[in-house]
Amino acid sequence: MIEVKHIRKEFVTPKKYPGLKGAIKGLFRREKVRKVAVDDISFTIEDGEIVGYIGSNGAGKSTTIKMMTGILRPTSGEILVNGIDPAKNRKENAAKIGVVFGQRTQLWWDLPLSESFTILREIYDVPREDYESRMAFLNEVLGLQEFFDSPVRTLSLGQRMRADLGAALLHNPKVLYLDEPTIGLDIVVKDNIRKAIRRINREHNTTVILTTHDMGDIEELCSRIIIIDEGRKIYDGTPEHLRDTYGSHRMVRAEVSRPLSGDLWALLQVEPQACIADYDPQRKLVEIRFDKNRLHVPQILHGLMQLTEVSDVHIIETDLAEIVKQIYTHGASEGRA
């Protein structure tokens, strides 16, 4: 569905100098500043995939999305969406994609939501029969009917996001771009929007590209993650592989009858840094954090049961949000440590 081949995007702006002298200097010296926002990124997205495209602020996510939607043209490289170049064929591309920006709306602020949808039906030239069928589906999935005749400016944030998602799907696009679709929403509305996206993808095989800082969106929706940092792709794979590759630590949390009665590290034949144990006397909990590349859960449990009586055990995997945070902070190579 989407082919991105070695794209690069540079922005060239006049160099600014501080103060009045700097402003006068700028009139006579036309120096330029070159900023590389996206640097040699390539990937392929199959028809019907839901892909999380994530990175820290300023990493180049929005620039990439704008190039895939045809708003911006790459400085070099090639993009094909459903077989066409989105920058060269903007009208044809726009007819086959839907876009939702969490901070912006494509709805008319003072018009009732129903009028916005009527205008969009005319813009996308959706036949009346298809429109009515599509609206029945969107009402069922997104619950638009309850506020369909209200002016857009009176809608709550959650209602507006559901309305924007419905508007983006009105013409049954092949590709749906979602930029922070659940930003600022409460847990219930987030869950409903995630369910709607999953159902739309399942029933219509819609390809979904999702940019978000909410790891809940990624874990709930995406079978694949692409991470970029400073304009470069640093990871492309499944959330599970990301945990296996970069999440080297696990935790065993056990309910016990008493503190450990011996030396766990000597029993496991490792140094204390490889296996850290804490005991909470009030809750009678032992938490053992360990490097999964050096120790395994059966070893931990075997040693634990030799040193105390265990009534219950929980195995806690590395939190995906923490892994991504470490990659944002330290880069992919250090995030693996």
Describe this entry's structure for a reader:
With 337 residues, the chain is an alpha/beta fold. Helices cover 38% and strands 28% of the residues. The chain has a 6-stranded mixed β-sheet with strand order 5-6-7-3-8-9, with helices on both faces. A 4-stranded antiparallel β-sheet has the order 11-12-10-13, covered by helices on one side. A hairpin with a 2-residue loop joins strand 8 (224-229) and strand 9. The longest helix is centred in the middle third of the chain and has 18 residues, at 187-204. It is globular, with a radius of gyration of 26 Å. The mean pLDDT is 86.
Can you lay out the helices and strands and say which pair or pack?
Elements lengths: L1 E13 L4 H10 L3 E14 L4 E5 L6 H9 L6 E6 L8 H5 L2 E5 L11 H11 L4 H15 L14 H13 L5 E5 L7 H18 L2 E5 L3 H7 L2 E6 L2 E6 L1 H8 L2 E8 L7 H5 L6 E6 L4 E7 L5 H11 L2 E7 L3 H11 L1 H4 L2
Parallel strand pairs: 3-7, 3-8, 5-6, 6-7
Antiparallel strand pairs: 1-2, 1-4, 8-9, 10-12, 10-13, 11-12
Oligomer: single chain
The overall strand count is: 13
Extract low-pLDDT stretches: none
Give the strand order, joined by hyphens, for the main sheet.
5-6-7-3-8-9
Instruction: Estimate the global geometry from the Cα principal axes.
Output: globular
Largest sheet: 6 strands, mixed
| Cα-atom radius of gyration | 26 Å
C-alpha termini separation: 35 Å
Element pattern in H and E? EHEEHEHEHHHEHEHEEHEHEEHEHH
**Strand-residue fraction?**
25-35%
- Give average pLDDT, whole number: 86
Q: State the helicity in percent bands.
A: 25-40%
Number of helices: 13
SS content category: alpha/beta
